[in-house]
Design a protein that fits this description.
By secondary structure, the protein is of the alpha/beta class. The protein is built from 13 helices and eleven strands. A seven-stranded mixed beta sheet has the order 3-2-1-4-7-6-8, with helices on both faces. Strands 5-9 form a two-stranded antiparallel sheet.
């Protein structure tokens, strides 16, 4: 059947409209492609570098440190030093107990020397004292490459060959928490069940006036023996509690239970300095470990050294012998002027012993020494910047492993601040009273901030 002509014309307008639309879009596309693409604007030329802008820093070199132990400076061997006071001398045969004592050191040699000499003269066997050199200067001190004005200087020869103590050198600078874990690791590797550690900025004396008298060392040994008794810390119901640490004047001197600290994973090395003790001792308490307070002697928190450490050996001049010695020195001077020579030179220690005698225990010498150390400790308590002693040396530029002293202090304070914040985030609490705030083991990193924020 055919289609009429009129029916065919019906679709013509529609066909024409579609064609027009198609031509319109084709024209747009062609025009778009033909239009030139504008170039991206070039970035401005960078200004030439002007170089670093330096801070306005004026630094005066601190005055040279004096010699705080002239007798040790002249000594050729331990026998050239005065003897330990007779009432403090350790037994000739070492006690059965292990009495290793770790003392960490980073800066300011005079305080390290003082604490070591004070422990030795309080009866601690030198061979049991381990100075942990945490200076970050590798073997520079052992090789004698640092000068006394360098904050990280220590006299390696005097410590080992004259005072007779041991030195362990860390491979790099450790934080306080890392240093504590090093003590723990050393104890584990040496199969120790306990060990002592002490701050370096302290000095110690025994209670010379107490009866029956015990040297500080033997009083510390008695604490070890007490902890080993079968009924130690056993309550009335027969339950025996375990201990984690024994405090002698807080942790200025401490006795550590190796097994206990190991069970808790040691110190949190993420909390490098202040606050890490709060964390460690709080975790001990949360897990039921006891922290008894003991008393073995006077422990002074100090900021300066005694003028002459000879006073710790408790010798006093013999008046008659002193006059004879002065006469002998005058004769020796005349002989040398006349050209005569002595065939033998007397030992410095013999001359020293001939001209001195031992002080009385708990006598005037002790009272004066106690008063002096107490005044130094009071000065530290009164000092707004209680650790200002760490800034008394600022030399060493050009020496091996040199670190700018001001930069070191600034970096240290920044590290301390970060560690403090980490501990606060860990427990959701600001302050040292972590357990008392209701927190318990397992809450760390799981709690929101409390009202202390």
């Amino acid at each position: 059947m055919g289609v009429s002509l009129r029916s065919r014309w019906v679709f013509l307008p529609l066909i024409l409209a579609l064609g027009a639309i198609t031509l319109y879009f084709l024209r747009l596309q062609i025009g778009h492609e033909a239009r030139p693409i504008p170039e991206e604007p070039k970035p401005p030329e960078p200004e030439p570098l002007k170089g670093p802008i330096f801070k306005n820093i004026t630094r005066e070199l601190a005055p040279p440190l004096p010699e705080y132990f002239p007798l040790a400076a002249k000594a050729n061997s331990p026998s050239d030093l005065p003897p330990v006071p007779s009432w403090n001398r350790p037994p000739e045969e070492h006690v059965p107990e292990t009495t290793r004592l770790y003392i960490g050191f980073t800066r300011f040699w005079p305080l390290l020397q003082q604490v070591v000499v004070s422990y030795i003269t309080a009866g601690w066997p030198p061979e049991d004292i381990y100075v942990v050199e945490n200076t970050g200067t590798m073997d520079a001190n052992k090789r004698g490459q640092l000068t006394i004005q360098n904050p990280f200087y220590l006299d390696y020869h005097r410590l080992t060959n004259i005072l007779g103590v041991n030195i362990i050198t860390t491979p790099s600078l450790q934080t306080f928490a890392q240093l504590q874990n090093l003590y723990l690791s050393e104890a584990i590797n040496n199969n120790l069940t306990y060990y002592f550690w002490s701050h370096m900025d302290v000095a110690v004396l025994p209670h010379e006036h107490k009866e029956p008298f015990k040297s500080l060392y033997m009083a510390a040994v008695d604490v070890i023996r007490e902890t080993q008794k079968p009924d130690y810390l056993r309550d009335e119901d027969g339950h025996k509690k375990e201990w984690g640490v024994q405090f002698f004047a807080y942790d200025w001197l401490s006795l550590v239970n190796v097994e206990t600290f190991s069970k808790l994973g040691g110190w949190d090395s993420m909390v490098g300095y202040y606050g890490t003790d709060c964390d460690m001792y709080s975790r001990l308490a949360m897990n039921g470990y006891q922290q008894p307070v003991q008393d073995a002697g006077q422990v002074y928190d100090v900021t300066a050294s005694l003028d002459d450490l000879e006073v710790l050996y408790r010798r006093r001049p013999k008046k008659q012998q002193q006059q004879q010695q002065q006469g002998a020195e005058r004769r020796d001077t005349r002989d040398r002027k006349a050209g005569s020579h002595n065939s033998t030179i007397p030992s410095p220690n013999k001359a020293y012993l001939d001209s001195t005698e031992e002080d009385d225990r708990a006598g005037a010498g002790f009272k004066a020494l106690n008063a002096t150390l107490e005044q130094i400790a009071q000065d530290k308590r009164d000092d707004k910047f209680r650790n200002s002693w760490q800034l008394r040396q600022n030399g060493g530029e050009g020496e091996p492993y040199y670190y700018d002293p001001d930069g070191f202090e600034k970096a240290l304070q920044m590290t301390i601040e970060v560690g403090t914040k980490i501990n606060e985030e860990k427990w959701g609490h600001k302050g040292c009273n972590i357990k008392d705030s209701g927190l318990k083991e397992g809450d760390q990193w799981r709690v929101e901030h409390d009202s202390t924020f």
